């Protein structure tokens, strides 16, 4: 069954099943990536590393993901998207198992690189499937469903992983995640349909594939905007946990509540943001969210000496507005290309996002340093840089034109 046929023949129930399965896939991918950040304090102690060393662990995943997505952008439209999705997910599961078995910094670093290599393609393939199967008038809503994986990862995956790590070992959450990945793989095997309509186009060489992809200025504005949004967010996100533990009265045991509350509020905010994205111009919704995101970014990066309640409130605002920016941004990128380019565009966009994420984590890690009392210094500088990059994204987003 071709992609075009599946988009016509999918019943509402089959469509929902597909979207929720893609959400489950995204959930495990996001937990695999996110769990490293709240484990930062434990990892820095276990391997006796500075914030810059932890930044290498985070950025290694993202840079590897960016490289694999760059390669996939030349070949993404040559294969059935179902086959690509399942192959990459199997590779990610094996890499996650390697993380759970790691007993040294270098072993963990190698496992994170392998996980990034497969994980970097997953989101691109999943979003390309949404773009191919779901009609444009429902695409924002569909993106919102798939991206609820972020909220669920923050509500269930990360707090549970932290709870397990606090009671056992930092490796244990990865082993639990492997078991969940195996279950989701079986579900995906039966639910995700073949998506092949893009295979009708003539095959071209890698050089020509890149030349075609990059010859469209509209694609470039989408790539730049997407990478800058990730850069802005991931200058701040990886270092929330270590700065809360090192700079405030809160401890490691309070971290699960921060992620739990932050994820919970997005269960309500993300569907609303998705509805706004379907109702108004994507760039208008994006601009409003970017400007509002500056408030929690500044509050979080100043690591105020306040109680748990106020940290939970800041986390809620941060998760709503900072993560909410990705919904209209993804919709803009998806609409920026013709259907025949969509697989390559989403893969290349994933590469740009991951490279932006990796560079942001590395740059912020270099800016930060530990004080004599163990506190982490200069996080406020990181926040100001993140806001400046956010302003730049508003300008680049205005350049994107919707073509499909």
Tell me the name of the CATH class. Answer: Mainly Alpha
Name the CATH homologous superfamily: MFS general substrate transporter like domains
Helix proportion: over 70%
| Named CATH architecture | Up-down Bundle
Computed Rg: 20 Å
User: Which structural class do you get from the secondary structure elements?
Assistant: mainly alpha
The share of residues in extended strands comes to under 5%
H/E topology pattern: HHHHHHHHHHHHHHHHEEH
Can you count the helices? 17
Poorly predicted segments: 1-8
* Whole-number mean pLDDT: 83
- Please tell me the total number of domains: 1
Report the sheet with the most strands, covering strand number, pairing sense and barrel closure: 2 strands, antiparallel
How many distinct beta strands? 2
The CATH topology is Growth Hormone, Chain: A
Strand order of the largest sheet: 1-2
Give an overview of the whole structure:
The chain has 404 residues and is mostly helical. It has one domain: MFS general substrate transporter like domains (Growth Hormone, Chain: A), CATH 1.20.1250.20. It contains 17 helices and two strands. It has helices spanning 3-9, 12-34, 40-47, 51-75, 81-101, 105-133, 139-167, 172-191, 206-214, 217-234, 240-247, 255-279, 282-301, 308-324, 326-335, 342-367, 379-397; strands spanning 369-370, 376-377. It has a two-stranded antiparallel ribbon with strand order 1-2. The longest helix has 29 residues, at 105-133. The two termini are 23 Å apart. Residues 1-8 have low confidence and may be disordered.
């Amino acid at each position: 069954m071709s992609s075009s046929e599946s988009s016509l023949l999918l019943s509402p129930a089959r469509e929902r099943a597909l979207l929720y399965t893609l959400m489950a896939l995204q959930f495990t991918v996001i937990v695999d990536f996110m769990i490293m950040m709240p484990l930062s304090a434990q990892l820095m102690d276990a391997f006796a590393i500075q914030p810059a060393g932890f930044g290498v662990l985070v950025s290694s995943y993202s840079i590897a993901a960016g490289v694999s997505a760059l390669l996939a952008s030349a070949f993404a439209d040559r294969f059935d998207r179902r086959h690509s999705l399942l192959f990459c997910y199997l590779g990610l599961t094996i890499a996650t198992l390697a993380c759970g078995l790691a007993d040294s910094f270098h072993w963990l670093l190698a496992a994170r690189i392998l996980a990034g290599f497969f994980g970097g393609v997953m989101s691109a393939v999943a979003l390309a499937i949404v773009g191919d199967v779901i009609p444009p008038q429902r695409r924002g809503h569909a993106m919102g469903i798939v991206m609820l994986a972020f909220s669920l990862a923050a509500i269930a995956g990360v707090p549970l992983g932290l709870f397990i790590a606090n009671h056992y070992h930092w490796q244990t959450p990865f082993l639990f995640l492997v078991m969940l990945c195996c279950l989701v793989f079986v579900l995906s095997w039966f639910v995700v349909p073949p998506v092949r309509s893009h295979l009708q186009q003539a095959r071209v060489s890698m050089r020509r594939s890149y030349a075609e992809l990059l010859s469209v200025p509209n694609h470039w504005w989408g790539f730049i905007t997407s990478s800058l949004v990730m850069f802005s967010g991931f200058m701040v996100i990886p270092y929330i946990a270590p700065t809360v533990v090192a700079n405030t009265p809160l401890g490691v045991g309070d971290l699960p509540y921060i992620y739990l509350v932050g994820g919970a509020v997005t269960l309500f905010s993300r569907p609303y943001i998705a509805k706004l994205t379907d109702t108004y111009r994507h760039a208008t919704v994006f601009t409003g969210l970017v400007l509002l995101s500056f408030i929690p970014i500044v509050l979080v990066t100043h690591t105020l000496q306040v109680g748990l309640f106020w940290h939970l409130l800041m986390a809620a605002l941060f998760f709503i507005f900072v993560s909410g920016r990705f919904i209209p941004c993804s919709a803009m990128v998806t609409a920026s290309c013709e259907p025949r380019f969509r697989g390559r565009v989403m893969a290349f966009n994933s590469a740009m996002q991951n490279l932006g994420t990796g560079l942001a984590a590395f740059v912020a890690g270099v800016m930060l340093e530990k004080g004599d009392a163990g506190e982490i210094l200069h996080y406020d500088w990181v926040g100001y840089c993140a806001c400046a990059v956010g302003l730049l994204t508003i300008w680049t987003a205005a350049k994107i034109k919707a073509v499909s």
